[in-house]
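Standup notes, structure subgroup. Blocker cleared on the heme C input:
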Amino acid sequence: MNKLNVIFLIVAIFVISCGESKKKTSKKEVVSTKILMNDMEKGAQLYRSKCMNCHMTKGGGIEKVFPPLANSDYLKKNTEDAMKMVKFGSNKPIKVNGIKYNGLMPASGLTDKELVVVFNYILNSWGNDYGQVSLEQVEAVKR
Ligand code: HEC
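Run returned:
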């Protein structure tokens, strides 16, 4: 092999491997957004059937009776505690966006997997951008 051939070979390998890795990452991105979209859809369904009666269509709640989830400082700052409230129910007095609530939220009756899905939905809906929770986190929430 002469020098030119060797250089050509190196360039060819470089180009091929770059192309490959690009293909791989874009494929991965597509898959993960798809899962997210699916989960958001599932979360919306769970929300409609299990939460919307009290927290209302757009997570706005009813002032002084049912706290809002949309733009809720409580949900943002106390995500773990909020998970506990939804998992096991709650009747302790809390303050959301400066307003007191002391109602009763019954335990959701959802499985831990469903809780992850509905939680990621409320954390990322109606303008909320409060991150995500994992199954491990939800499983770790104890009374
Ligand atoms: C029967 C009405 C009712 C239902 C159904 C209900 N909640 Fe609640 N929720 C409440 C009340 C009342 C509180 C305040 C509880 C307290 O004062 O301890 C609350 C509090 C919360 C909080 C913490 C406070 C806040 O606004 O950030 C979150 C988060 C929450 N609920 C999410 C949910 C989710 C998710 C579901 C569905 C799986 C759900 N709730 C179903 C009535 C309800």
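Discussed briefly. Helices lie at 3-50, 52-55, 73-77, 79-88, 112-123, 135-140.
Next: hand off to the docking folks.
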